[in-house]
């Protein structure tokens, strides 16, 4: 979390970055982000909000090392990002947990994929600890199909946090979760990252979620996405442990300010673009999530 | 427990007083209605099949469809089944030349061996081919014209050129059964690899998987249920292959169950034909029902997501 007063060290620096993806069927390259410069400081919780298809997911995929930028530079700890690394882990919108693995085996996956010095017992202990932290006790041997959406995302969160990575990337992790569960998960996430001091880059569609979680909120403009404005959330933590955040005196002002910014972009999006897909083309859910108007074949 | 039992049998008006003492789960009374709801399908099946066999017997007995040479009675068929499987023939002068002790059992064993070996080879070759085609673009590009052509071609058509090359012997039987059975395995395996969810692959990459690990930890488990349904399809295709190949190649004595069906029919031993056919049907039924539960056992995570 933001340590105000302490010097903020830049951890992830995007410098006039351009990125996009290929539309396979139409053989076209689509620019999702253009000339984006954004700095994520060590230990901060940065939230990206913006209209559908503005390139938020592309940005997070670039940081994760899944997508290479077309132009500009993105550095992590001063070094250009070249593929995924153990200091960055991710929570996915569609959970992306392995359906053939039990809860504990899903959470243990990062230890199987990267070499480490922990003994089997250490790994088991770490897995059990994180299972307790996210509230999955009793479901260790369950398969994902036996769990609700909220429980599945707890598995996704636990898998991302079990290695105590420096950076947690979250691509609309609670978007498909019901409203009540979402609030519980938000509070759990806040507690988890406050404990571990993680740097978080978090995507959401929800302004309320952005204010509840973010130290800073970057509003991304329409495709090709640019950073339109960065809003500081000057509210003390923990915000979600007890009480109702919406009654905080700053809440209303922040919400209105952000809503005006996002509304402009969303309305602009409807006028300017009738094109395809969400921001990466990587995830099928992204494609499914687009409105019928945008998935229609322009050729017809 | 404060909740009342919602069992259909419970009567609301009378248990109002004993509300707190009601257990949530209690044994239901055995009434005729309950027995009927539970066992109705078994009861209907028994009645259904009995009616079927009675009508068969009547049709054959009064020679409605044709003489016994063409359409045997159910009882004659049962007798042929008994002799063909368990022996005990009494030579009373009424027997046909083909119907000998254990003749169905011996031919069935012959077919089963042929079938089992061919299926092992088909599955053993088919899975690696499918995996390679799904995993490597070049293998896919090189093999796919042959795979798709051969899989769409009626397999019977390649019998003639195969005979020219291999002659009529055991090897052509195996070749044709394998060619009949192999493609569902290849194509299903290929489809499994191809449709592996990108988000699962991305997740594995984020957590450090290289190409080999992506295959081992994501693509292979994801493909497993596809392989299983490919095998199911292949098993029933292979059975067709066995019968056809035994019919085409013929034999003088021990040609297999398929051969026995055709051979006895051409000798107008209709009881033996129907007995062999029934044996084949039971085997096929067991096979299909047996493999149906295979996927649920091997890939339990698939069951619920389907509903």
Give an overview of the whole structure:
The complex is a heterodimer of chains A (300) and B (307). With 300 residues, chain A is of the alpha/beta class. Chain A has a domain at 10-84 and 200-295: P-loop containing nucleotide triphosphate hydrolases (Rossmann fold), CATH 3.40.50. Chain A is built from 9 helices and 10 strands. Chain A has helices at 56-64, 103-113, 120-134, 149-161, 179-196, 207-213, 249-272, 284-289, 292-295; strands at 10-23, 28-41, 45-49, 71-76, 79-80, 88-91, 167-171, 199-204, 216-220, 227-232. Chain A has a 6-stranded mixed sheet with strand order 6-7-8-3-9-10, sandwiched between helices. In chain A, strands 2-1-4-5 form a 4-stranded antiparallel sheet, covered by helices on one side. In chain A, strand 7, helix 5 and strand 8 form a beta-alpha-beta unit. In chain A, helix 2 (103-113) packs across helix 3 and helix 2 runs parallel beside helix 4 (149-161). The longest helix of chain A has 24 residues, at 249-272. The N and C termini of chain A lie far apart (50 Å). Residues 1-5 and 273-300 of chain A have low confidence and may be disordered. Mean pLDDT of chain B is 85; it is low at 1-18. Chain B is built from 12 helices and no strands. Chain B has a domain at 103-306: MetI-like fold. Chain B has helices at 12-15, 32-61, 74-86, 103-135, 137-152, 159-166, 170-194, 198-206, 211-249, 257-266, 270-298, 301-306. In chain B, 72% of the residues lie in helices and 0% in strands. Chain B starts with 11 loop residues before the first helix and ends with a helix. Chain B is mostly helical and 307 residues long. The interface between A and B is medium-sized, with 30 and 25 residues.
